[in-house]
Each structure stands twice: as structure tokens, then as C-alpha cells.
Amino acid sequence: MLDPFGRSIDYLRVSLTDRCNFRCVYCMPEEGFPATPKDEHLSADEFVRLVRIAAGLGITKVRLTGGEPLLRNDLPEIVQKIAAIDGISDLSCTTNGFLLEQRAQELKDAGLHRVNISLDTLRADRFTEIARRGSLDTVLSGIETALKVGLTPVKINCVAMEGRNADESADFARWTLHSPVHVRFIELMPIRWNLDEAPAMNEHLESGLLTLRRSNGSMLNSAEMRRSFVSSERLTQMIESEFGPLEPAELPTNGPARTFRIPGAKGTVGFISQISSDLCERCNRLRLTHDGFLRPCLMSDGELNLRDPLRSGSSDDAIRELFLHVVRHKPERHYLAEGQKVVGRGMSQIGG
Ligand code: SAM
């Protein structure tokens, strides 16, 4: 599938649930978001059907995410069925790692290729402050188990925040010296925390023929979050001041990260700078939400309902058309600098 800007779309992120067992401060309010009723979640077979249709259109990479995807009991079944679809060559999962120690082997056996594990701090007290649930030890055990069973390469997603964990960037880098983990620092994204200032809508999308999702109520203080932003450039400086110049590194399955290695290290450090440098030019993704809406862009609220057509007997051909419709309306880039706000869903409701 080619979008109007010549980008080839071959990557689908599939969010399996909006529920999460963590409450990361930048992602979810302490009390959680109101959860979507169970019957609005797609079933395993509905996800599999949509991925099969997407694969027929050229999707080769699928990432299962959420919410916390390991909360779904039918995850091994979903993995097994998606792994068996012709054309899917890369099947991965993003998890907070809390249930990974107990579930890694069954996921590997079901056909999952690899995992990304979110971990923002290596200090137990800070873990409690940032994730507000779970424990650092459990996540570290999950990471060890993922390495042991071969869900590799294991990537660690770290959202860097000034005043909370940015000073640990060198500690994360040190970890890669002896362990084959691939730490990727992700810039904090303004999703839903600036709702209080949001204009009524994102104008450029109004002509896009996609439904605009809107909702009320903010979850975090946007001024505080804006102060927390730390650029990839600053993190690089902090790491290099301790370890010297980083060398460029290649990682298969690299995605949008710029990847480097401390000379001689087993793992790598990478930077996903979706705010400070524009990654949109190379964006190859679509996102399917847990309740069956297809989005062409993380940072725009436009989305198309596939669940209703799916449940009212639409043919594969008709659903294929809906995929193509969304691809035709993929925005050229995000418009955050121009004041666009992402307000409709939080990250856990879109699928991070
Ligand atoms: N529960 C799984 C996990 O923790 O990895 C998957 C869902 S979570 C929403 C996916 C990723 O989104 C995590 O790495 C999380 O840190 C990241 N994330 C959530 N909100 C974010 C934000 N505002 N800016 C940047 N990354 C964010």
C-alpha cells in the first residue's frame, strides 16, 4: 500500500486491550481510564481476520500492544494464528514486562518473534513513583526470561523525563555493556495531557473523511509534562560524557530508532526522536485499536470504525477498501508544532 505521499505502508500495530496493570504517570491517570466494555473489544478471531486482510494488502510487520497485551488470556492463540498468516515476517509485542516471566515461554512457543519491554528506571523507588504498580524486580526477571527463551532482540523502551529518570541514561547505557539488551530512549509525546488547552478539533483532519474522536477530561498537568521533556540530543551528551563517543550500530528490525553502541558493548542504545526530529517522512504504520478502529497516525485523532462493518457481515473486499481509505487519508506529518493536539484517546487506548 502506498499512501498519497509515496510512503509504503507495511506495518500494523494491533492494540489488544485498553486495560493496563500499570499506571505510568505520563500515560494513564491513577484511577485508570474508563475501560471499554468487553463486548466492544475485538475477539481473537476478529483481530486475526483483520490482520489477514491487512497482510493481503502488503502488511508484513505486526506488533501487538495495548494497554497491556499480556493481560489477555487468549494472547497465545492470537499470536499463533497471526504467526501463521502468509506474509507476516515480523511478529512482536510491546509489554510492561510484569507478566513476562510466567508467559514468555508460551508466547515463544506460540510463534512470537520478539518483545519490546517498557522500563523507565533501574531504581526500585523511582519505579514505584513512575509506574505506580508492579515492581522493578519482576520486570527485570521478565527481561531475563525473554532473553533466555529467545524472544530476541529484546528492546527496552525508556521514556526519558527531566527530573524523574533522565539522569539514569548513562546507567541504562552501562547495562548494554554486558547484556544484549537494546535500550531505546523515547521522547515524551504530548498525547492527551494537553487536553485542557486543546482547540475544538484538528482542522486539517476535518476534510479527511475520518471520524474525529473527541472526549472530555484531562489526565495530567500539561505544564509539568512539558517541563519533563528531554531531547535525544541531551541524552546522547550525558551518555557520551561518561563513555566517550558512541559508534553507529545496525540492528535488524530497527524501525525509526537511530542506534549506537558503546564500543565493545553487547547491546545498543537508540533514540526515537519523534518530537525533536520529524520521523513522519519514513512512517510506514497503521494502528488498529482494541475496539476495532483503524488510525493512520498516532498523533492525529482521525480513525475509521472497522468493528461495525466486521460485525455486520461485510466481505473481506469491503474491509480491504476501508484499509485503503485510511491509507489514502494518512496525514503527511503530525502538526504538533502548529498547535495540533491529540485529545481523543490516551496512549493506552490507541496502542503505544
Ligand atoms: N503496556 C505496554 C507497555 O508498557 O509497553 C504497551 C502499551 S504502552 C502504552 C506502549 C509504550 O508507550 C510504552 O513504552 C510507554 O512507555 C509508551 N508511552 C505511553 N505514553 C507515552 C507518552 N506520552 N510519550 C511517550 N511514550 C509513551
Write a concise synopsis of the structure shown.
With 352 residues, the protein is α/β, with parallel strands linked by helices. The protein has helices at residues 44-56, 75-83, 100-110, 124-131, 136-149, 169-178, 203-206, 222-228, 232-243, 307-311, 316-328, 347-350; strands spanning 11-15, 61-65, 90-95, 114-118, 154-159, 181-186, 211-212, 247-248, 258-261, 268-272, 285-288, 293-295, 302-305.
Provide structural commentary:
The chain is an alpha/beta fold. Helix content is 31%, strand content 16%. The protein has 12 helices and 13 strands. Strands 7-13-12-11-1-2-3-4-5-6-10-9-8 form a 13-stranded mixed β-sheet. Helix 2 (75-83) runs parallel beside helix 3 (100-110) and helix 3 runs parallel beside helix 5. The chain binds S-adenosylmethionine. S-adenosylmethionine binds at residues 20, 24, 26-27, 65-66, 68, 94-96, 118, 157, 159, 186, 188-189, 191, 347-348, 352.
Give the key terms:
352 residues; alpha/beta; 13-stranded mixed β-sheet; 12 helices; 13 strands; binds S-adenosylmethionine
Q: What secondary-structure arrangement, pairings included, does this model have?
A:
Elements: E1 11-15, H1 44-56, E2 61-65, H2 75-83, E3 90-95, H3 100-110, E4 114-118, H4 124-131, H5 136-149, E5 154-159, H6 169-178, E6 181-186, H7 203-206, E7 211-212, H8 222-228, H9 232-243, E8 247-248, E9 258-261, E10 268-272, E11 285-288, E12 293-295, E13 302-305, H10 307-311, H11 316-328, H12 347-350
Parallel strand pairs: 1-2, 1-11, 2-3, 3-4, 4-5, 5-6, 6-10
Antiparallel strand pairs: 7-13, 8-9, 9-10, 11-12, 12-13
Helix pairs in contact: 1-2, 2-3, 3-5
Bound molecules: S-adenosylmethionine.
